[in-house]
Amino acid sequence: MKKLLLIALVLSLMVPLMAREGHAQTWYTCNVLQTGPSTDGSVWVLITEVNGAFGPAWYSLATATANQQLATALTAIASTLRVRAHVSTTPNTTCDGMVLTNTQ
């Protein structure tokens, strides 16, 4: 029982730390400036949020969906469209999702 209480206490203290502004991910409307693979094989994208929340900032694309996100980013650049990116405002973290929008 004491272990369960200790675990509950630790978890309750961690939640506010993980939800601090700048670390929580949400969807942002962004312009894609650059994208491509790095020397270690990971794929990165340079984006800027259209309302000035962050950017320009580099984000690594989530490994599981890197090819799809890369295709989305390249399409956005080629067509001068924006994307909705699931990121935090902290640069050099992971972009977990990206969808093309129909706005310029």
Number of domains: 1
Number of strands: 6
- Pairing-aware structural class of the strands and helices? alpha+beta
Q: In the CATH classification, which architecture applies?
A: Beta Barrel
Helix content range: 25-40%
**Could you tell me the radius of gyration in angstroms?**
17 Å
Strand order of the largest sheet: 5-3-2-1-4-6
Per the principal axes of the C-alpha atoms, what is the gross shape? globular
Run of helices and strands? HEEEHEEE
Percent of sequence in beta strands:
25-35%
Euclidean distance between termini CA atoms: 57 Å
Please report the number of helical segments.
Answer: 2
CATH top level? Mainly Beta
Major sheet characteristics: 6 strands, mixed
What do the pLDDT scores average to? 84
Low-pLDDT ranges: 4-22
Using the coordinates shown, work out and report the CATH topology: OB fold (Dihydrolipoamide Acetyltransferase, E2P)
Structure description:
This protein is of the alpha+beta class. It has a single domain (22-100), classed as OB fold (Dihydrolipoamide Acetyltransferase, E2P). It is built from 2 helices and 6 strands. It has a 6-stranded mixed beta sheet. The chain is globular, with a radius of gyration of 17 Å. The N and C termini lie far apart (57 Å).
Secondary structure elements and pairings:
Layout: H1 2-18, E1 26-37, E2 43-49, E3 57-61, H2 66-79, E4 83-87, E5 94-95, E6 97-100
Parallel strand pairs: 3-5
Antiparallel strand pairs: 1-2, 1-4, 2-3, 4-6
